[in-house]
Amino acid sequence: MPKRSFRFPVWQRLVGQDAVYEWLLPLKVRTADDRFVPKTFLFDPGSGFTTFSIGDAEQLGIPYHRERPVTIRGTTGTGHGFLAPLRFYLAPLPEYAFESLCCFSPTPLPRPLLSLKDVLANFRLRTLLPSRLHPLGSLILQMHGRHKGQPLPA
Question: Lesser CB count within 10 Å: N end or C end of the chain?
């Protein structure tokens, strides 16, 4: 299989008067009725688990269960959630679905978080310097040979 690479720009937003930089990744997440719905995730290398809010999961029909409670420690304190599988694919790569052990959180989130663990399990990553196309730089994700993706029917 040829190695597939995808490029994502660095985005800037202001928090007060300070600029913060982010990588937003377009994913499609599996629902209870086996459809995939679009959701933009923030790539968060500091998250131990990919994280999705329970409110968003219920609104979109994304299945989860509360059988495996977990306590998560983050920069703003300690929270609680539930670990359950989440199936998704990278929007520009609809041929493969990936599974994550996701933390479903009762705390509302501005957007779901994609953990470094889930990226490294399936992709090599590297960054590129700023260019005319991406003036703040970009992230390259390339599927590696040991990816855990499962082929999806065309």
Answer: C
Task: Please say whether the beta carbons of 136 and 20 come within 8 A.
Answer: no
pLDDT tier for residue 2 given thresholds of 50, 70 and 90 = very low
Q: Are 90 and 58 in contact (CB under 8 A)?
A: no
Q: Please report how many Cα atoms fall inside a 13 Å half-sphere around the Cα of residue 140, on the Cβ side.
A: 11
Contact 114, 89 (CB under 8 A): no
Tokens of 124: 């090599």
> Is there a contact between 101 and 51 (Cβ–Cβ < 8 Å)?
no
**Angstrom distance (rounded) from CA 53 to CA 149:** 23
* pLDDT level of residue 153 (50, 70, 90 thresholds): confident
Task: Report all structural domains of the chain as residue ranges with CATH numbers, in order of start.
Answer: 5-151 (2.40.70.10)
Q: Judge if pTM exceeds 0.90.
A: yes
Q: How many helices (H) and strands (E) does the chain have?
A: 2, 11
Tens digits of per-residue pLDDT, 100-145?
A: 999 999 999 999 999 999 999 999 999 999 999 999 999 999 999 8
| Separation of alpha carbons 91 and 146, rounded Å | 20
